[in-house]
Amino acid sequence: MKKKVLLHTCCAPCTTQVYIDLVSAGLEVAGFFYNPNIYPKEEYQKRKEGMDLYCAKTGLPMIYIENDLDYKPGECNLCYKMRLIRTAQFAKSRGFDGFTTTLLISPYQQHDLIKDLGGEIAKMAGIEFLYIDFRPNYFKGRELAKTYNLYSQKYCGCSASIKTRGGKK
Ligand code: SF4
Q1: What is the pLDDT of residues 107-116, one digit of tens each?
Q2: 25 backbone dihedrals φ, ψ, rounded to 5°
Q3: Counting atoms of ligand 1 from 1, which one is nearest the CA of 37?
Q4: Per-residue pLDDT tens for 1-16?
Q5: What are φ and ψ of residue 64, in 5° steps?
Q6: Residue 155 CA, ligand 1 centroid: distance in Å
Q7: Residues 20-68: pLDDT tens digits?
Q8: In this structure, are strands 62-64 and 128-129 parallel, antiparallel, or unpaired?
Q9: Which residues contact 160 (CB under 8 A, 6 or more apart)?
Q10: By alpha-carbon position, which residue is closest to atom 4 of ligand 1?
Q11: Under a CB-based contact definition with an 8 Å cutoff, are residues 94 and 32 in contact?
Q12: Which residues are annotated binding-site positions for [4Fe-4S] cluster?
């Protein structure tokens, strides 16, 4: 039987190649869109619609969790944590074998921090964190995003990152 993995998805463009890599590795994948960091609401909506479009085209099942936290912009450590904790908890409660995140494909994110947090959260939640360095395929993913005509954001997500273009995609 295939191993089931819950994939935290930060946006559609980063999901494209990661999904291919996971399926190629023989995994069954479901997406988990939980990103209370995205500001403002209009931007959140655009990214969500981009994900809807991508899922309609590829058949990737996606679970959407509405924003339910009072989020503080600019604190990447907490921002990664809140998203990974929720993903791990959901994965555990629904019988997945493990979880991972599309944040691991971006050369603009703090890769080692995400890797470490994923490992710690996995231990706490009692479920495997599938660490894969997807970054070598980052530009393949950007090309796929153009092919699918997906919305591509210009900043990471929070209000602080609008000014700095932090984690630009
Ligand atoms: S820059 Fe990105 S990762 Fe850091 S706090 Fe803002 S939205 Fe989160």
Answers
A1: 999 999 999 9
A2: -85, 5
A3: 7
A4: 899 999 999 999 999 9
A5: -105, 130
A6: 9
A7: 999 999 999 999 999 999 999 999 999 999 999 999 999 999 999 987 7
A8: unpaired
A9: 73, 74, 166
A10: 76
A11: no
A12: 10-11, 76, 79
Dihedral of the alpha carbons of 35, 53, 94, 14, in degrees to the nearest 10: -50
4-164 has CATH 3.40.50.20 classification: yes
Distance from C-alpha of 127 to C-alpha of 89, rounded to nearest angstrom: 9
91 token code pair: 């994965």
According to DSSP H, which parts of 9-168 are helical? 12-24, 41-58, 76-93, 111-125, 138-147, 159-164
Residues with a CB atom less than 6 Å from ligand 1: 37, 73-76, 79, 156-158, 160-161, 166-167
Rounded to the nearest angstrom, the distance between the alpha carbon of 38 and the centre of ligand 1 is 8
DSSP class of residue 97 equals: S
The per-type count for the chain, helices as H runs and strands as E runs, is 6, 5
What tokens were used for 137? 């395929």
